[in-house]
Amino acid sequence: MNAYFTAEELAFQEEVRHFLQTEFPADLKAKVDASIRLSKEDMVRWQKILFEKGWAAPSWPAEHGGTGWTLTQRHIFATEMGLIGAPEPIPFGMKMVAPVIMTYGSEEQKQRFLPDILESNVWWCQGYSEPNAGSDLASLKTSAVREGDHYVVNGSKTWNTLGQYADWIFCLVRTDNTVKKQEGISFLLIDMKTPGISVKPIVLIDGFPEVNEVFFDDVKVPAENLIGEENKGWTYAKVLLTHERTNISGVPRGKRKLKALRKLAANTQDGFGKPMSENASFKKRIAEAEIELKALEYSELRTLASLSVGKAPGPESSILKIVGTELAQKIDELFLELAGYNALPYVPDQFEDDFDGEPVGPGTTAASALTYFNNRKLSIFGGSNEIQRNIICKAVLGL
Amino acid sequence: MDFSYTEVQQMLQDQVQKFVQKSYDFDTRNSIVASEEGYSKEFWQLFAELGWLAVPFTEDDGGLGGSAVDLIVMMEEFGKANLVEPYTSTAVLCGTLIAELANGEQKEALVNSIIAGEVQLALAYIEPQSRFNPFNVETTAVVEGDAITLTGKKIGVLNGEAADKFIVIARESGESLDRDGLSAFLVEADAAGVSRRSFPTVDGKRASLVEFDQVKVDTSTRLGGTGQAADALQAATDKATVGVCAETVGALESLLQKTVEYTKTRKQFGTPIATFQALQHRMADMFIECQLAKSIVMMAAMSLDSQDEGIEKTRAVSAAKSRVGKAIKAVGQEAIQIHGGIGMTEELDVGHLFKRVTALDIQFGDGEFHTERYASL
Question: A390-394, B88-92, B151-155, B188-192: lowest mean pLDDT where?
Fold first, then answer.
């Protein structure tokens, strides 16, 4: 047993590191380090740099312009990206709809949609959850009725992340009411500019409209935008959910955050003349987080090793999702704790791109409560941690 | 032994309950938070008329008795409604400091105007390096004849925006961690050399960073003896801490109640999610947290009202803040999680209560700080 990379993998790691150090723009790195929200332009710019290098789509096969990397190479790349703080592409196009189009789409759909995803020319968003279909996704009600060469879509979707910037939306829609709920669902691609679509922002508790409700009022969608067969959408969606749950452990991000936390602790007074980095109780809690992160990292590596020898993905992704998100939340709590009174100001503009005033509080401390609030979402979205535990109960424990 | 409320306390509770039910719903609160002042002057006057602003003061000082138990009865109801009016800053924190330190003449002027709702006050004591230690003070007070010059920076000054006057803790002698040498000064908010930067807080209140740059005050603005403010500062922050603990308990009870209600109406998989035992047990745990928090806050309030030694009172306060801090994490996070996405939005009061209890955890030192203080006493 060993957890070493091969010589080729180490050389690849070196190549990735060198590339990121030289090509990840310094102004974007500065923003990430200062907790400033990246704009769509920032993210597209970075994606285009990756595209030029041929690294835009690590998880895609080479035939569609992906890297064709092994799982270990993908892991190394994701790790190095996370350590430096380079943003992952917005997942909805690259990681969610693209695999579905590749697997179940027609040749024409592949040619029409994949290149623009690869080049970040077109942004996608996800139309899954509905007000009454959250964890119980299959009970969704948004309907698509076939009329000649198109569908007429009516209903609403919610928790639609960053839909205000999106050009296209992939939706689960109900095309048959008369069968078991999972069997009457279809997978439809819809242009966000189609008449009858309206987007209403939902402001989250950190004050930012990160998600939206999307309403469909007699929206005409060409039938050619259907993926695969009618009423098979649930099967396709499950494939997509597996993709949503890979790389969700956030180990590299956790490492970067803990490094920043240690630095901040060394620069934070404990009120009694010493830095917080010498506070025994706080040191113990950082250590606990680091230990948990190691356990998570090696769980992820075990999964990776198992997938690399061709085993089917199992419920491991549920473990990674649960532990990864709960640990990320724990790390946010430690930042909040360090900030003390500096966490109280609510000056969200300070973390926007165009802020030119005098910041309140040292460094990113005034962002710590907002980050803590916002990241409560981690254990809710992408299949809530309750649903993940259900999966473990069913799939592993046989309950 | 008797844990029931007195008739007067019962009346006070009923009165506050009626007020918040009738006049302080979620929409009203939101419009107050969004208003220019950040609190309702009209309600503040009402609080004065109802005698609520007199609760923290003894009868000798013109108040209603000054008991900590009276205070928690009221604060718990404030917490349930997520009230934003600066009661803690003006009436409890500054009120107690004045009651402890001020001479007859100063009291006459100040206590009456607090009780009448005519003045807003803010305590400027925390500094960038102090974290949660109120005695870590580097702001200086230099005496020359009858004039005193104040210089220093204060952070986290709650109610700093609305304050007509600040009570400023400054050092007249000693090193930056010494209790001895600290004095309290009453400074007009518009005095020359005072500059404040105000902002909303994450829980919908207002606070300020306040800088005192060579601010000249008269020796008559000193409250209490020269360099002798530490014990009163301890007493005031301890009392206010118990008050915010009770406010927290109220907010946590509200979070629990709203979570239970939501699970009864929210259906997934064809049934209300309240029928899932996995969620039921977690709500039972939330209930246990609320009960333990409530018990220890009562313990601390009774200790403050007792003849206990000062150090015993401080230990009781730290015990309460520490345990309440644990309950904040447990109940607050579960309330959001069980609500799911909807709990993450500004549209629902649950998220606002969550933000309030998170901010209250920080105020006067978080649970971790108080666990350590408890251990050190």
Answer: A390-394
**Interface with A, mutate which of B33, B131, B349 (most A CBs under 10 A):** B131
CA-wise closest residue to B366 among A267, A280, A336, A289: A336
Q: Model confidence over B76-126: pLDDT tens digits?
A: 999 999 999 999 999 999 999 999 999 999 998 899 999 999 999 999 999
Chain CA centroid to CA A268, Å: 31
Q: What is the pLDDT of residues A264-308, one digit of tens each?
A: 999 999 999 999 999 999 999 999 999 999 999 999 999 888 888
Q: What is the pLDDT of residue A1?
A: 84
The pLDDT, as a whole number, for residue B232 is: 97
Q: Residue range B317-340: average pLDDT?
A: 98
Q: State the DSSP code for A345.
A: B
Chain-chain contact of B133 with A272 (C-beta, under 8 angstroms): yes
Q: B368 and A372 in contact by Cβ < 8 A?
A: no
For residue A73, give how far its alpha carbon lies from the nearest alpha carbon of chain B (Å): 35
Per-residue confidence band for A246, with pLDDT thresholds at 50, 70 and 90: low
Say what the ipTM of the complex is: 0.97
List the structure tokens of B61: 């000082």
Q: How far is B274 from chain A (nearest CA, A)?
A: 14
DSSP string, A169-195: EEEEEE--SSS-GGGGEEEEEEETTST
Among A244, A278, A300, A386, which one carries the catalytic annotation? A244
Provide the number of CB pairs (under 8 Å) joining chain A to chain B.
133
In chain B, the domains with their CATH numbers are: 7-115 (1.10.540.10), 121-227 (2.40.110.10), 231-376 (1.20.140.10)
Average pLDDT over residues B324-342: 98
Share the mean pLDDT of chain B.
Answer: 97
Interchain pair B345, A132: CB under 8 A: no
CB-closest option in A205, A333, A385 to B346: A205
pLDDT score recorded for residue A242: 64
CA pair distance B212, B110, nearest whole angstrom: 22
State the smallest CA–CA distance between residue B160 and chain A in angstroms: 12
Distance of CA B152 to the CA centre of its chain: 24
Whether the pLDDT of residue A311 is over 90: the answer is no
Nearest residue in B to A345, CA atom: B201
A244 is an active site residue: yes
CB contact under 8 A, A360 and B347: no
Token pair for A175 = 């095309």
Which domains are delineated in chain A?
7-88 (no CATH), 123-231 (2.40.110.10), 247-395 (1.20.140.10)
Do B87 and B47 form a contact (C-beta atoms < 8 A)?
Answer: yes
Which residues from chain A sit within 8 angstroms of residue B155, using beta carbons?
A: 341-342, 361
Q: Which residues, in sequence order, are CB contacts of B68 under 8 Å at separation 6+?
A: B239, B242, B243, B300, B301, B302, B304, B305
Q: Do B345 and A207 touch (CB under 8 A)?
A: no
- Over residues B28-81, the pLDDT tens digits come to 999 999 999 999 999 999 999 999 999 999 999 999 999 999 999 999 999 999
The answer to whether B371 faces chain A, any CB pair under 8 Å, is yes
φ, ψ dihedrals at B260, nearest 5°: -60, -45
Alpha-carbon distances of A225 from A121, A190, A214, rounded to whole Å: 19, 7, 18
With CB atoms and an 8 Å threshold, state whether A389 touches B278: yes
pLDDT number for residue B167: 98
* CB contact (8 A) between residue A281 and residue B372: yes
Whether B370 and B321 have beta carbons less than 8 Å apart is answered as yes
